[in-house]
Specification:
The protein is an alpha/beta fold. The protein has 13 helices and 28 strands. Helix 1 packs parallel to helix 2 and helix 1 packs across helix 7 (204-218).
Length: 448
């Protein structure tokens, strides 16, 4: 089996909010400065963090998720997307051991470290703590004997305190790669679904450069590179099966909504569509007055923030008419979460107003005060057949969430009806991972 040398690191944390995204982005900026060919990955079902990775590196980032894919396919995806890179940086998700249902390490950053055989650096928030940090780190090292945690970065910790703690941390068998003090460079804006998007962050390029300057001054970058270089060669996993028979077929076009309101897409899903012979044509429901070109066979409306732009979307009557006409012409619709809400008759905006939308689904989207349904799910049809794996994360709900499928929480006792599915539409709150239900999704798209 062919082996490939690939330097790599996984940056994890004890919990969300520890600063791993900011530090990951700063390190990516440093690697870019050093002219290293680098690729980035995000553990778990996250859309926003990979957008920041892409902003820095200028190339797509990918999700590594062992709930959506079996381990050998996660490994194959990792190796395939990193094949031309000198270095891979993987950002963890939530707490290092946090996995399915909050009671398992399945689909955790820890599990991804095992699958990819990657050394781990733990980003620990040191604010309001001192020696107790050593106890916390000791717990993470010992919770699993094969933790793969090789080093620590202390966040929101001054250099003097870090140096006083160094011998106590090194006594545990880990290397302290530096401490990042509380500073304005590491303060990023956020809202109900996570960090605000790269395009919404003021002077982001300037701030990224300032963050990298700060990290260069307080982290042992050479030490991190040395650790990354100690990762064993990658054994190529089982190849992800690509579509058979797509070569020679007529290329079909799918219009993909890409703007401030619709921006949540797994890059793997977009690649999957292209691998199966679909040409992706971007368009903006916010800014365009018509669909991008003739010959569209399907429309993909991803998740995002339609509630923040409900008034503007409603006022773009030309686009609403285009979408209604497309539905009448038999064009297929794939719509997830925010895209699903856009297909409703009415949508409550962030301002509390109620705005007309496309009206392709009878019902109203409305705001709730908390996450309505959150986490991994498996989708089953009414005959009990497993259709796909997916993820839900939304504060808005619907008077018609759909009833075509049953969503079942793994390792839990919750389940609910969801999804509107017809010959021309797959729509609902679940964010689908296409490779987990590829035959069903492909049949839907290809059926005339």
């Amino acid at each position: 089996m062919k082996m490939k040398k690939l330097s790599r690191l996984l940056l994890a944390a004890p919990c969300s909010g520890s600063g791993k995204t900011v530090i990951t982005c700063g390190i990516l900026e440093i690697l870019k400065r050093r002219k290293l060919s680098c690729v980035s990955f995000k553990c778990g079902p996250d859309y926003i963090d990979p957008m920041f990775h892409r902003y820095i590196l200028g190339i797509a980032g990918y999700n590594l998720d062992s709930f959506f894919l079996p381990p050998e396919q996660v490994k194959a995806l990792f190796e395939e997307k990193a094949k031309d890179a000198d270095m891979a940086v993987i950002e963890g998700v939530m707490g290092y051991y946090d996995g399915v249902a909050g009671i398992s390490t399945h689909a955790s950053a820890y599990e991804i470290s095992q699958i990819t055989d990657t050394p781990v650096v733990l980003v620990v928030d040191g604010k309001k703590s001192s020696l107790s940090l050593a106890a916390e780190i000791k717990g993470f090292l010992e919770y699993r004997p094969d933790s793969r945690i090789r080093g620590v970065i202390l966040n929101r910790t001054g250099p003097a305190m870090a140096e006083r703690l160094r011998p106590y941390l090194e006594e545990l068998g880990v290397c302290l790669y530096g401490a990042v003090p509380a500073c304005k460079e590491a303060e990023w804006e956020s809202r109900h679904l996570g960090l605000t998007l790269p395009g919404e962050q003021a002077r982001l390029r300037e701030r990224m450069e300032a963050l990298a300057d700060r990290l260069e001054s307080c982290l042992d970058v050479e030490g991190l590179l040395k650790l990354a270089g100690e990762a064993p060669p990658v054994q190529r996993g089982r190849e992800q099966r690509k579509s058979s028979g797509s070569e020679g077929k007529r290329v079909k076009r799918i219009a993909v909504a890409r703007d401030e309101a619709f921006c949540f897409y797994y890059q793997e899903n977009l690649d999957w569509l292209e691998d199966n012979g679909w040409k992706l044509i971007p368009f903006s429901p916010l800014h365009d007055s018509c669909l991008p070109c003739a010959g569209i066979s399907a429309i993909l409306l991803g998740g995002g923030y339609p509630e923040r732009y409900a008034k503007e979307l409603s006022e773009n009557q030309a686009m609403l008419r285009e979408l209604r006409m497309a539905e009448k012409q038999g064009i297929k619709f794939l719509a997830e979460c925010g895209g699903f809400l856009y297909l409703h008759e009415m949508l409550e905006g962030m301002d509390g107003g109620s705005y007309p939308m496309t009206g392709l689904i009878e019902g109203r989207g409305y705001r709730t005060e908390r996450l309505s349904r959150f986490g991994y799910i498996v989708l089953y049809d009414r005959q009990g057949r497993r259709m796909a794996r997916a993820h839900e994360f939304h504060y808005w709900d619907s008077t018609r969430p759909g009833e075509a499928f049953r969503a079942v929480k793994p390792l839990g006792d919750r389940e609910w009806d969801c999804m509107v599915v017809t010959d021309r539409m797959i729509a609902g709150f679940p964010h689908l991972y296409y490779a987990s239900g590829k035959d069903w999704i492909l049949q839907f798209l290809e059926k005339t």
